[in-house]
Write a structure and sequence with these properties.
The protein is α+β, with helices and mostly antiparallel strands and about 450 residues long. It is built from 13 helices and 20 strands. It has three domains: about 90 residues, Uridine Diphospho-n-acetylenolpyruvylglucosamine Reductase, domain 2; about 110 residues, Uridine Diphospho-n-acetylenolpyruvylglucosamine Reductase, domain 3 (2-Layer Sandwich); about 190 residues, Vanillyl-alcohol Oxidase, Chain A, domain 3 (3-Layer(aba) Sandwich). Helix 8 packs antiparallel against helix 11.
Length: about 450
């Protein structure tokens, strides 16, 4: 297969180099974020324009090769790389261009969240997105995209106005609410199943700053902290969001306020008094700092697994599972994380996008993090076991971006039967050979 692929790439007359195992940059460019995903593709191409994206897609299709599309390289199961196939690395297509008159921004398919934030925030704008700045905009958006600003402004897909996409045929199209609307519905939550997004257009939202509170509580206070947080969070407006992370070292609570700064103290301060022994406090935290504060903990080449789901609220049963599970964590960086949802996310009807889970109050993750290959089995088993326990309180639907496992059941469980069938029919029309299958895959069905 590799010879057939290399022949097809040669015939494609790409403008960019074709990087193979004999090249000095091969090991550098084959790396992805999750250290578990140590794969050796037959070729890597790094296009700088849409024409080379088209040529690479056609070469992969003609040769029958596996095609992995890499935006930020953050796929938890390592789906942005492959063995023996082609990696289409979009990291050179990362421009961010603001239109102040229209209050929109166009973002290249290889841009990172940090690229987007650094371009928009200093100009008084925001696009709601994720919480780690070296995440790719494309992968995050195509799964839905949730983060600190989601209660205020919705999911990332709720700010998406249109996208340029290279289809399995190599043809280019635009999709928006009025042009190819079925495709636009599908890419808002349907992942990378339908093509390579080379350009996004987002609506910008006004942004003047945040106030945030960060507190660390002793792990022994977990039940008191989580039950208190649950009650306080129910009372908050869309200007507020909270998350918590439980690890062997304690319970980290972060609360963020987007509204009138004069109201921030009353809204946030109670989250610092949930139990005795808290350290931390309120601060006028720069948004770029908030967005990048976890970058080092989630650094490239560490080893990751995650299993997640939606809660309607934080149940007593979930709290008990958290308390029990964290005592069994195999490494110090294993964690259970949850971020509050609701707010503006719920204002969009669930059937308006492929994303499923708008009724949820929280998204949770069982997330082991480790560095030694020898801990692979114990960490993954802990992540899966803890995830199964936390699923007891979960609602139907899931978020495809935060799943360390892959397989046909992931997409089916995420979307439910009605949405899955709708996505599968579109897949059969646009990608009947399933060229774009290195994702949480939707199998083409008529």
């Amino acid at each position: 297969m590799s010879n057939s692929l290399l022949d097809a790439l040669t015939a494609a007359e790409l403008h960019c180099p074709v990087i193979t195992a004999g090249d000095p940059d091969y090991d550098r460019y084959r790396r992805v974020w999750n250290g578990i995903a140590d794969r050796r593709p037959a070729a890597i191409v790094r296009p700088q324009d849409i024409e080379d994206v088209q040529r690479a897609v056609r070469a992969a299709a003609a040769s029958g090769a596996l095609l992995a599309v890499r935006g930020g390289g953050h796929s938890l199961p390592g789906l942005s790389t492959c063995n023996d196939g082609l990696v289409l690395d979009l990291s050179l297509i990362r421009s961010v261009v603001i239109d102040n008159t229209a209050q929109t921004v166009e973002v290249g398919g290889g841009a990172l969240l940090g690229d987007l934030d650094r371009a928009t925030v200093p100009k008084g704008y925001i696009v709601p997105a994720g919480v780690i700045s070296h995440t790719g905009v494309a992968g995050l958006t195509l799964g839905g995209g949730m983060g600190w600003a989601s209660r205020k402004y919705g999911l990332t897909i709720d700010s998406l106005l249109g996208a340029e996409i290279v289809l399995a045929t190599g043809d280019v199209t635009w999709t928006s609410p009025t042009w190819n609307p079925e495709l636009f519905w599908a890419i808002r939550g349907g992942g990378g199943n339908f093509g390579v997004i080379t350009r996004f257009r987002f609506q910008l939202h006004p942004f003047s700053g945040i106030v945030a509170g960060q507190w660390l509580y002793p792990i022994e206070r977990a039940r008191q902290v989580l039950s208190g947080l649950r009650g306080l969070a129910r009372e908050q407006s869309n200007d507020f969001a909270v998350s918590f992370t439980v690890s062997p070292s304690g319970i980290n609570v972060t609360a963020v306020w987007y509204g009138d700064a004069g109201l921030a103290r009353a809204a946030l301060s109670p989250f610092g008094t949930l139990a005795d022994g808290a350290t931390g406090g309120l601060e006028n935290l720069p948004y770029l700092t908030l967005q990048s504060r976890n970058d080092a903990a989630f650094a490239w080449s560490r080893r990751y697994y995650a299993k997640g789901g939606f809660w309607p609220d934080i149940s007593d049963g979930a709290i008990e599972h958290i308390v029990a599970a964290i005592t069994q964590a195999p490494t110090p960086d294993c964690e259970i994380y949850a971020i509050q949802l609701g707010g503006a996310i719920r204002d969009i009807p669930d059937d308006a996008t492929a994303y499923t889970g708008r009724s949820a109050g929280y998204y949770w993750l069982s997330e082991p993090i480790w560095d030694d290959m020898a801990d692979d089995d114990s960490c993954i088993e802990w992540g899966r076991t803890t995830g199964r326990l936390l699923s007891d309180s979960s609602i139907i639907g899931n978020y495809v971006n935060e799943q360390g496992d892959s397989g046909s059941n992931i997409a089916r469980d995420a979307y439910g039967p009605e949405k899955y069938q709708r996505l599968a029919r579109l897949k059969a029309r646009l990608d009947p050979a399933n060229l774009f299958r290195l994702n949480q895959n939707i199998e083409p069905q008529e």
